[in-house]
Specification:
seven-stranded mixed β-sheet, single chain
Amino acid sequence: MDISIVVPLVNERESLPHLVEWLHRVISGMGKAYEIILVDDGSTDGSWAEIQRLSAANNRVKGIRFGRNYGKSPALNEGFKAAQGNVVITMDADLQDDPDEIPELYRMITVDGFDLVSGWKKKRFDPLTKTIPTKLFNWTTRKASGVQLHDFNCGLKAYRKDVVKNIEVFGEMHRYIPFIAKKEGFRNIGEKVVKHHPRKFGHTKFGFSRFINGFLDLLTITFIFRFAKKPMHFFGGIGTLMFLVGSLSATWVIGEKLWHSFILHEPAPRVADQGLFFVALTAMVIGVQLFTAGFVADLVSRNGTDRNRYRISERTGC
């Protein structure tokens, strides 16, 4: 199998026949063996019935249906599991992504040797309420991830098969697939300016809550990649620092009391009357709690089923 097209969708019944016909026309012209995997993420508008009809008409069309709406990331993850093509291309079902971009994306993977090529919708046909937050989101993600892409959330992407088979997309992490791929060692990431069409059917699924969730997910994924296998380095490090601050503050309070009592021979201020005492007490308690949390998290991590799961790209002599 040369190409797998993975299309996550929810309530896109009107767009599906146009999209599938367009894909057939483009990829057939390339002379490549292909499959189209439509992942129905709990649609309620009859999208599944349309997928069944399209699949019956052409066995290259395959369908996966969720029992309810789980989100784009789980839909992509299931599509990746099912994909058999050497090159996997993802796109949205709303006809805003252009299938005519597929031949060049395929060439960039197979000839230029990219692990992943992400589309860049340089000229967009979206309202300002979507484009302005998107620009801020992309700028923040570039700075946090070190991946220099202009459009992380573009649905039109191409991957080598090894990439999609070695990454896991969950929650709402589809926005950060290039970041996830980089952390898994797939560093040859490219970008291509792609056409963006106005939406013809249905309505956008974008909302302001998704913008907020995107930044929270960025914090989550950064933490997971840095500390998932060594949580004690994070919790224990901060806990030790807090305990040290508390200990130094307590030492200062005690030293001040001894200074007044034995050196100046005057009544020392009561410990409980000093604000620094409560700072010391709070810092020490928080420090112990964080250190304990790190210890427990480390125990959980060491008993995880994937504690020794590593991606091996090649072997020789063994």
